Amino acid sequence: MLNDFDSAPILRAATTLGDMPGDRPMSAADEPMTIQALREERGLGVVELAGIAGILPDHLRAIEAGVDPTLPERQALAAALNVPVERIA
């Protein structure tokens, strides 16, 4: 449930991967990408990203297959991927 969301894994991932989302202006390299492309670029598996973002792996698979995520899901995925929400296509 989103009310029970634990942001600690996201903060650890942000510390490991670099700066926090939104810390710098977007550039040409920050063009929108699919969640799957962003996940694969970071070497994350579906189960790993789903765990960091606090969603079920099957739901992440559905999102990657074309189901529109809710705004809280987009925000959680963006934070887990260390990108601004606007970067997610």
TrEMBL record:
The protein, known as:
DNA-binding XRE family transcriptional regulator
Phylogenetic placement of the source organism: Bacteria, Pseudomonadati, Pseudomonadota, Alphaproteobacteria, Hyphomicrobiales
Residues covered by the HTH cro/C1-type domain: 35-88
The UniProt entry, under PROSITE patterns, shows:
HTH_CROC1
Q: Where does the signal sequence lie?
A: none
Q: Which UniProt keywords apply?
A: DNA-binding
Q: Which GO terms describe its molecular function?
A: DNA binding
Q: Which Gene3D superfamilies match?
A: lambda repressor-like DNA-binding domains (1.10.260.40)
List the InterPro entries.
Answer: Cro/C1-type_HTH, Lambda_DNA-bd_dom_sf
